[in-house]
């Protein structure tokens, strides 16, 4: 129902985009710092009775739990977003993720409390995923629904830079600790520091988000969906499955580069974690910088063509990427990572405009977020586990390349079945 009183004046788009970007960066920092810790230290600290390979697999299994929780979080927070507004989602999801992340940094290891340690880790990782499942829908929709249609991809791309910033911040802190601490100090307490930093970031993010105005699309609704998830399942189930399959390649590529390759390079190639982190972070810097540039192309040429091009590029690049990684040479590894992340951002720079445009405003928060986070289960939850198992033998891990190529081809097929949503140029005047 419409509000009787006039809504507050909306913030300027640059301020709104900046607030969404900062909040998304903080939430993804929380999520990524766990992935880096899983690749480097969580195996021996929380699964000490396992072999090194089995310990890494177990740590990545707890990493995957976060992805399983994300669709549940999108259902929970999507319901709130479609019933109560996008703004409460931004605050609630950030608070949940921040508290869970700080708590991970406080969990005693297996040597102190035994099997309770990995159980606590599992529970907190689940809560992290629950919060992040709500974050994307709220941040993206608040920006997309304020943006003019002819520049929606551009403005919506700023929250998409958040994951890059979150990753760089998480791994930058890990890199600094790696350079300043001994291996014993890092394993004893150093790995906990990035989790504690999350508390400071969450407080700053909450202060920023409480001042944001509600989405105009939500305020203009005459009637809100009573059970948004039921409407989505009943009327849009095919769309949800297609978007989940389409987005799977982005998650698979990103976590193959940022999580699996880190563990593989350190444990099997013998490359120092400092070198691996530097190569990956350099590629992420380029990817993040190009996000708004690619989004502008999405406003000019459409969302679907870029998504098709990105998934096709990913399918063609996975074997070269694995071959370059297997050399253990920093420059060649960087080139392999960069090619993969450029394919990734060709798709994901426009996804923040594309997914909301596929759904009506009354179920948009639920539909877009559920499809987005189901893609994370398909592409992100299993990739580090499958890739670690496939790369356990001698020689170049071609099985990893084949697995990633298969996901890329699946996503290419799903994108081909989705419609274009860019507003027709003749009906929307282009502004400078």
What does it look like?
It is a single chain. This protein is mainly alpha-helical. The protein has one domain: Growth Hormone, Chain: A, CATH 1.20.1250. It is 79% helix and 0% strand. It contains 16 helices and no strands. Helix 1 runs antiparallel to helix 2, helix 1 crosses helix 10 and helix 10 packs parallel to helix 14. The longest helix is centred in the middle third of the chain and has 40 residues. It starts with 12 loop residues before the first helix and ends in a 15-residue tail after the last helix. 56% of the residues are buried. The N terminus and C terminus are likely disordered.
Index terms:
disordered N terminus; mainly alpha; 432 residues; 16 helices; Growth Hormone, Chain: A; globular
Quick structural overview:
The chain is an all-alpha fold and 432 residues long. Helix content is 79%, strand content 0%. The chain has one domain (15-208, 234-417): Growth Hormone, Chain: A (Up-down Bundle).
Topology:
Blueprint: H1 13-46, H2 52-83, H3 86-104, H4 110-113, H5 116-144, H6 152-180, H7 183-188, H8 193-209, H9 216-219, H10 228-267, H11 273-301, H12 303-326, H13 330-357, H14 364-381, H15 383-390, H16 398-417
Helix pairs in contact: 1-2, 1-3, 1-5, 1-6, 1-8, 1-10, 2-3, 2-5, 2-14, 2-15, 3-5, 3-8, 5-6, 5-14, 6-11, 6-13, 10-11, 10-12, 10-13, 10-14, 10-15, 10-16, 11-12, 11-13, 12-13, 12-16, 15-16
């Amino acid at each position: 129902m419409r509000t009787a009183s006039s809504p507050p004046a909306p913030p300027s788009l640059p301020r709104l985009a900046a607030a969404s970007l900062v909040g998304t960066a903080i939430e993804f920092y929380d999520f990524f710092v766990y992935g880096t810790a899983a690749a480097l230290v969580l195996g021996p600290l929380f699964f000490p009775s396992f072999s090194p390979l089995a310990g890494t697999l177990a740590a990545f299994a707890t990493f995957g739990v976060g992805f399983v929780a994300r669709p549940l979080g999108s259902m929970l927070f999507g319901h709130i977003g479609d019933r109560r507004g996008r703004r409460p989602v931004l605050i609630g999801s950030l608070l949940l993720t921040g508290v869970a992340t700080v708590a991970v940094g406080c969990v005693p290891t297996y040597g102190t409390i035994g099997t309770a340690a990995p159980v606590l880790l599992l529970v907190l990782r689940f809560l992290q995923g629950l919060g992040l499942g709500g974050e994307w829908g709220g941040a993206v929709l608040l920006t997309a629904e304020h943006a003019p249609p002819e520049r929606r991809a551009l403005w919506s791309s700023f929250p998409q830079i958040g994951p890059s910033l979150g990753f760089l911040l998480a791994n930058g802190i890990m890199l600094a600790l790696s350079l300043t601490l001994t291996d014993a100090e890092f394993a004893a307490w150093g790995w906990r520091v990035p989790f504690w930093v999350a508390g400071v970031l969450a407080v700053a993010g909450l202060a920023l988000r409480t001042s944001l105005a509600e989405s105009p699309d939500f305020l203009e609704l005459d009637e809100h969906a009573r059970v948004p998830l039921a409407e989505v399942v009943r009327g849009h189930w095919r769309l949800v499955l297609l978007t989940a399959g389409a987005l799977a390649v982005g998650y698979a590529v990103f976590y193959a580069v940022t999580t699996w390759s880190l563990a593989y390079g350190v444990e099997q190639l013998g490359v120092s974690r400092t070198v691996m982190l530097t190569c990956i972070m350099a590629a992420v810097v380029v990817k993040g910088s190009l996000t708004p540039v690619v989004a502008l192309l999405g406003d000019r040429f459409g969302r679907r063509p870029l998504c098709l091009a990105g998934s096709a590029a990913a399918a063609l690049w996975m074997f070269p990427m694995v071959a370059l990684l297997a050399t253990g040479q920093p420059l060649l590894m960087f080139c392999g990572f960069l090619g993969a992340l450029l394919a990734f951002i060709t798709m994901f720079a426009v996804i923040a405009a594309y997914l909301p445009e596929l759904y009506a405003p009354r179920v948009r928060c639920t539909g877009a977020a559920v499809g987005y986070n189901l893609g994370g289960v398909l592409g992100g939850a299993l990739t580090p586990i499958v890739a670690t198992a496939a790369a356990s033998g001698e020689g170049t891990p071609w099985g990893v390349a084949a697995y990633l190529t298969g996901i890329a081809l699946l996503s290419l097929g799903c994108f081909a079945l989705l419609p274009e949503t860019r507003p027709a140029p003749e009906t929307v005047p282009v502004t400078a």
